[in-house]
Design goal:
With about 475 residues, the chain is of the alpha/beta class. It has helices at about 15-20, 50-55, 70-85, 95-105, 120-130, 145-150, 175-185, 195-200, 245-250, 260-265, 270-280, 285-295, 300-320, 340-345, 360-370, 400-405, 420-460, and strands at about 5, 25, 85-90, 110-115, 135-140, 155-165, 190, 210-215, 230, 325, 350-355, 375, 385-390, 410-415. The protein is built from 17 helices and 14 strands. The chain has a seven-stranded mixed beta sheet with strand order 3-9-8-7-6-4-5, with helices on both faces. Strands 10-11-14-13-12 form a five-stranded mixed beta sheet. A two-stranded antiparallel ribbon has the order 1-2. Helix 5 (about 120-130) links the parallel strand 4 (about 110-115) and strand 5. Helix 1 (about 15-20) runs antiparallel to helix 3 (about 70-85) and helix 3 (about 70-85) runs parallel beside helix 12. It starts with a strand and ends with a helix. Residues about 455-463 have low confidence and may be disordered. Bound molecules: pyridoxal-5'-phosphate (PLP). Pyridoxal-5'-phosphate binds near residues 216 and 226. The site of pyridoxal-5'-phosphate (PLP) has 15 residues, from helix 4.
Amino acid sequence: MTTTTQSYGEDNFGFTTEQVHAGETVDGDVGARITPIYLTAGFVFDSFDHAQQRFAGEDGGLVYSRYANPTNTAVEAKITALERGVDSLLVASGQAAITVALLGILRSGDHLLSTPSLYEGSKTLFRENFERLGIEVEFVDDPHDIADWKRRVRPNTRAVYGETIPNPKNDLIDIGLIADFAREEGLPFVIDSTASTPYLIRPIEHGANIVVHSASKFLSGHGASLAGVVVDGGNFDWARYPDRFPQFSAPLGGPGSPSLNEKFGKTAYLEYTRTIIAGRLGPTLSPLNAFLLQQGLETLSLRVERHSRNSLAIATWLESQPEVTSVDYPGLASNPSHAIATKYYPRGTGSVFGFTLAGGTADARIIIDGLELFSRMSHMGDVRSLVLHPATTSHAHLSAADRERLGIYDGLVRLSVGIEDEADLIADLELAFTKLRVSDVLEAAASGVRENIVEPVTGALVE
Ligand SMILES: Cc1ncc(COP(=O)(O)O)c(C=O)c1O
């Protein structure tokens, strides 16, 4: 079989052209236009010698789908081009992507410095699972204060971590500022860009070194399957710090043999993470799910554009509702992150955000149960609009004081705004707010009736 791979990502084409064509393979024998699903565990060797050559990596051919598969490779090439990286690795979920990306750098005894506002699943992964592996994760108090970062660097610090648009608070970080700090300290900057996607920002162009995504979200868009991806920017000089990152500078096959740095240069990190970390721990993405991700990626810009437009309209509408005390959307001029949004996100600031209701959990319950178009779900970045109450679901395991500190108030409602028609989404929210107002009126009337009944009786008793 002959396949040819198109290469893009050189700024020759616009984003939408690239998302359709980058990485695509054209199957020369059959003529399949779309990279097919190569649903196979392994690949046949022509002979005894051929098997030996493949295992020695001599012809770069395929061995077993845990390491590489043509469907996955085509999707990896597309994402690499969109992110302006040098190579990518698909894995089974976003959590797997974060885990293998960091285990490609860190080992027991190492220290990771992180921004404080992160997806709660990453925090529990760091606090509980990484702690059991002997990796300590420390959170800075103020990610905008470089002195705070500097004060916390230790001899065993090995990486810096953050999220582009932190889930769920949207308290944006200044990527360039943190990237400059990380570079000066000789530390790779790993960033989760799930909520932004390369259509809104390419973190590598702002100095980040490794980008991770939960590809289950916007990159797929259909909500049909989970996936994760690690993108190597090829812009961290691992060879400069052989004592910190010995995995890339040690001879691969014993004394005298080349190291990963020598053999692979700019892709040394991704090679290590693919073969030694993911290849052995085994969170392989099924080629079937890679194919579904490929279908989603082809429409990424169109969806994210619509997601962002709908979100700004909904955030603006929410801000004018008297029951709402705050809207965490950086696209709003009133938001504390608006200046960073203007600097880094000219195409929009995504579509996952919260708003807080003055009436706490009781009001959140009425709004969430009152929505008909929004699905009550723990997911985001779907073409469908979704809604969740973080305080009683994703953040329920935290103490009330910790939730308060993180801004996860009882009245916080998180939306993942979909691509439906803006007017229909606002009408659905209007319906839910009307139900809230009716309920408030009924409650006031009921308490008035109670007062009218109780007072004369109490009065009688007092007399
Ligand atoms: C920012 C972020 N990163 C990673 C993940 C984990 O992704 P997955 O559910 O695909 O494992 C999520 C899930 O919501 C997320 O919001």
